[in-house]
Amino acid sequence: MVFKKKRKWHLLPNQPITELDKQVMYWEGRGKQVPSRDLIKTAEQIEGIRRAGVVNTGVLDEVAAHIHAGMNTLEIDRICMDYCNAHGAIPACLNYEGFPKSVCTSINEVVCHGIPKETDVLEEGDIINVDFTTILDGYYADASRMFIIGKTTPEKEQLVRVAKECLEIGAEAAKPYCFVGDIGNAIQKHAHKYHYGVVRDLCGHGVGLDFHEDPEVVHYGKKGTGMLIVPGMVFTIEPMINMGTWEVFIDADDPFGWEVISGDEMPSAQWEHTFVMTEHGVEILSY
Questions:
Q1: Surface-to-core class of residue 15, CB atoms within 10 Å of its CB (0-12 exposed, 13-18 middle, 19+ buried)
Q2: Whole-number Å distance between alpha carbons of 128 and 131
Q3: How far apart are CA 183 and CA 172, in angstroms?
Q4: How far apart are the C-alpha atoms of 75 and 170, rounded to whole Å?
Q5: Which of 1, 86, 133, 245 could, after both became Cys, cross-link 92 (CB 3.0–4.6 A)?
Q6: What is the 8-class DSSP label of residue 11?
Q7: b/e string for 35-51 if b means 16 or more Cβ within 10 A?
Q8: 245-264: pLDDT as tens digits
Q9: What are phi and psi of 21, to 5 degrees?
């Protein structure tokens, strides 16, 4: 995802200058990347995204209730589709830029965008990321979870745990009027304690009125870099943590060109929530 639009802050005509205006203009005047007003969701929009988030969380809860060794990932796709249909929602992934299924199912060394298949059968010891995005009444919510199938190795268990900790630490670093780089820096520091690679070629993103919006939420970097995050912005944090190198490649055997593999084909783990920034910190809208 690369967003090219140059963002500028515009004061509303005939309206008093708010604390939000003051903060954004302060940082804009110092050359920082700031949001434009269209990235600030209204209370009505946030409520719509929240409702989509409830369905999205329900999808992943339904997967959690049924996932097991011996099932194939196409069965996971059917579970997600059935839940969506029953709740009046639409899977955002289905046919998105040629993606052929409703959900991403990424097993072991597949970092993300794994395509459900009848031939991908879950085995004892596998780890799998299930990533789903819901559209409900035109609003989007996005989340993913890791699942351990049966009993796995201590190394894989640690990777899954640390990846979740990276998400939680990134969320703790997300404060009103922080920068995207503050989030990435916190995640990178924690992952590097375990000598894990933090994927750089993919990132979190704004979400809510569309599948992918500004800002790009990278999971590595320096404090004070990237876009300023202010109350009313809705975005995902979704660190992809590799047991080995941070580098990735596209699976040459994938006819759709979607499946991303860790560069050394060692296991990878990812967790993702949708958040809204409030005056007091982030609130989870989907998990």
A1: exposed
A2: 10
A3: 8
A4: 32
A5: 133
A6: P
A7: beeebbbeeebbebbbb
A8: 999 999 999 999 999 999 99
A9: -55, -45
